[in-house]
């Protein structure tokens, strides 16, 4: 008998009925899958469940056969050590079939049961095959799109889609033009012959939205724009957005490793953009092989083995499936004691005068009180899109930095702007980034500033802990004067910088999103974010409207699994 761990994995959250056997000693992963292919339209939950009902027993049997064939122990010993299954997120009717099969098998073989979060499995398979320590992970799947990073025992959601998953968005467009499911590979194919047309591009901090670009794409198709041009431009904008937010996540966390997960990760253009972005900033990029990107039981078995080694099994009575299972709900038992991301590390050493942000190269001259910010070309983006974004953002940053200041929010004084060159010259403010000086008092101050912007009818757009400076402000406002208003100690006073993603709006939703972006960045950078999140709300309440905070609670309640509806 061998003592190597072998795990049987079962997957069936939506379309892939799949079973796998992972052998931890040889690192071999055997996968047997049977995809559901809708006759027309997208995934129908009932049809998908019928498919699972038929196909799960078949693929499980095939995987078990493989396990028996490769098993060296006596026939009385079970061929696998545990059964791991996707507990969610996914379509309820499909999940229940998988759950039932897994429970039955665990009882029949008398081996433990392991409940795996499908999204965490998409991430862990990349960590497993790359050997990276603590990467940021971009999950680009059908029903989801989000950025995850490990911190303090959980995978934190640094950013995510504000509406549909990325694959579903693409699939809806292809349905509109009459193509069969799944649409992603067809868009990739058609894009080869396309030319660039202007389409919306929406990122808010590390969150992003696909609804605007998708309606524009459908309208363009209805108006007779060549479909290959739309496909090409959809890929450029949608994948450009995902690449940009990934870069923001690397910049915010200080990580220099990125892994990709999910079915859309099979797209060569997406991988090319991520690869190029990472190369440009000196980070490492890894995409697992295609059979591990699309939904598959291999990733369930691999994570199952890690959980098994950590003793993370579940009792039958606790093994209910969860269609809304979020990755940040999972207690990451299999990584305890591992090193954390070195958060708070900047890209520049003390004394060095150049900082590479997510967007720009920033030259700091504190002794003369000056900062020069240059949005350099991002070669992963289409040049037309790149020119447009850099120009727009430079102009907006100049305009809103000054406007905020007039509305009483401390920001740097602007001394020069050149939109064509995407270059700004600003006053040097503060002593350090908020990321390195988090305190309830300082974030309370930020809460007040955001409320004041919103009261004036615009949003910051990217209020992260790196876009707030703390400590002695710029040239005006003597320390005494500011201390005299009795609010915060001088050391906790904050200035806002980097307004390039800001815009005018009177929608409560946009104000709530602004706060949500700040919240997520606190969650991503602080060990104990709760008191800080509370302090932001306190500060906001003092100046702004309660209904924005109410809307913020709605926004937080979203981000649930969305079916293909
Ligand atoms: C919860 C679970 O059921 C769900 N699964 C899922 O979405 O299947 P996945 O295999 O990760 O991704 C399927 C999506 O991946 C897209 N896709 C496949 N090949 C593609 C390609 N070459 N380019 C773009 N998209 C592609 C398909 O169009 C489809 O939308 C998820 O992970 O969100
Ligand atoms: N006016 C300023 N005064 C002092 N420091 C500044 C100023 N502007 C920028 N910095 C420093 O440079 C860093 C990067 O600047 P900025 O956020 O504007 O660039 P970016 O590329 O847009 O970054 P990101 O998109 O990652 O937020 C800031 O985090 C801050 O440390
Ligand atoms: Fe998936």
Description:
The chain is an alpha+beta fold. The chain has 3 domains: 6-124 and 294-335, Nucleotidyltransferase, domain 5; 125-287, 2-Layer Sandwich (Nucleotidyltransferase, domain 5), CATH 3.30.420; 354-555, Transferase(Phosphotransferase) domain 1 (Transferase(Phosphotransferase), domain 1), CATH 1.10.510. The protein is built from 16 helices and 22 strands. It has helices spanning 45-69, 92-109, 118-130, 166-176, 184-191, 211-222, 227-253, 268-281, 290-293, 297-309, 383-406, 440-455, 479-483, 508-525, 529-543, 546-557, and strands at 6-11, 16-23, 28-35, 82-88, 113-117, 136-140, 145-151, 154-160, 203-204, 207-208, 257-261, 284-286, 354-356, 361-365, 370-374, 414-418, 423-427, 432-433, 458-459, 468-470, 494-496, 503-504. It has a 5-stranded mixed beta sheet with strand order 3-2-1-4-5, with helices on both faces. It has a 5-stranded mixed beta sheet with strand order 8-7-6-11-12, with helices on both faces. The protein has a 5-stranded antiparallel beta sheet with strand order 13-14-15-17-16, covered by helices on one side. The radius of gyration is 25 Å and the shape is globular. The two termini are 49 Å apart. Mean pLDDT is 92; it is low at 474-486 and 560-565.
């Amino acid at each position: 008998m061998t003592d190597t761990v072998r795990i049987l994995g079962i997957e069936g959250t939506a379309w892939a009925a799949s079973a796998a056997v992972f052998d931890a000693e040889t690192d071999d992963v055997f996968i047997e899958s049977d995809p559901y292919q809708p006759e027309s339209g997208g995934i129908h939950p009932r049809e998908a469940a019928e498919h699972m009902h038929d196909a799960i027993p078949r693929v499980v049997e095939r995987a078990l056969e493989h396990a028996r064939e490769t098993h060296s122990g006596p026939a009385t010993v079970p061929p696998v050590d545990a059964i791991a299954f996707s507990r969610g997120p996914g379509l309820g009717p499909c999940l229940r079939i998988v759950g039932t099969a897994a429970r039955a098998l665990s009882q029949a073989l008398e081996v433990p049961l392991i409940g795996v979060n499908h999204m965490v499995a998409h991430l862990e398979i990349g960590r497993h095959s790359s050997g990276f320590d603590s990467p940021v992970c971009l999950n680009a799947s059908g029903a989801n799109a989000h950025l995850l990073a490990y911190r303090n025992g959980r995978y934190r959601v640094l950013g995510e889609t504000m509406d549909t998953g990325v694959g579903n968005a693409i699939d809806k467009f292809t349905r509109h033009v009459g193509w069969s499911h799944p649409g992603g590979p067809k868009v990739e194919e058609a894009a080869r012959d396309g030319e660039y047309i202007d389409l919306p591009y929406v990122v808010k901090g590390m969150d992003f939205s696909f609804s605007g670009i998708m309606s524009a794409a459908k309208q363009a198709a209805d108006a007779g724009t060549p479909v290959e041009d739309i496909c090409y431009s959809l890929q450029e904008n949608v994948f450009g957005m995902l690449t940009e937010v990934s870069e923001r996540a690397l910049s915010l966390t200080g990580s220099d490793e990125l892994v990709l997960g999910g079915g859309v990760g099979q797209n060569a253009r997406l991988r090319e953009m991520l690869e190029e972005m990472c190369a440009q900033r000196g980070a490492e990029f890894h995409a697992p092989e295609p059979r591990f990107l699309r939904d598959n039981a291999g990733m369930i078995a691999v994570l199952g083995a890690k959980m098994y080694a950590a003793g993370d099994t579940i009792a039958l009575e606790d093994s209910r499936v969860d269609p809304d299972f979020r990755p940040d709900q999972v207690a990451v038992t299999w990584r305890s004691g591992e090193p954390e991301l070195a958060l708070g590390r900047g890209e520049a050493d003390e004394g060095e005068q150049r900082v590479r942000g997510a967007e720009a190269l920033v030259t700091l001259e504190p002794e003369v009180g000056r900062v020069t910010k240059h949005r350099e070309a991002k070669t992963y983006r289409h040049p037309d899109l790149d020119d447009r974004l850099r120009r727009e953002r430079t102009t907006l940053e100049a305009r809103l930095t000054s406007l905020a200041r007039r509305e009483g929010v401390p920001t740097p004084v602007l001394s020069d702007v050149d939109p064509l060159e995407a270059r700004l010259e600003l006053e040097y403010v503060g002593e350090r980034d908020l990321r390195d000086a988090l305190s309830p008092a300082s974030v309370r101050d930020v809460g007040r500033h955001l409320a004041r912007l919103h009261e004036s009818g615009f949003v910051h757009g990217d209020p992260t802990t790196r876009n707030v400076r703390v400590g002695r402000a710029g040239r005006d406002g003597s320390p005494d004067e500011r201390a005299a208003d009795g609010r915060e100690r001088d050391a906790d006073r904050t200035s806002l910088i980097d307004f390039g993603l800001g815009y005018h709006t009177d929608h409560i939703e946009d104000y709530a999103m602004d706060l949500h972006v700040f919240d997520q960045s606190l969650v991503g950078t602080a060990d104990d974010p709760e008191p800080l999140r509370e302090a932001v709300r306190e500060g906001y309440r003092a100046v702004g409207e309660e209904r924005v905070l109410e809307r913020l609670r709605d926004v937080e309640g979203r981000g649930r699994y969305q079916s293909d509806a």
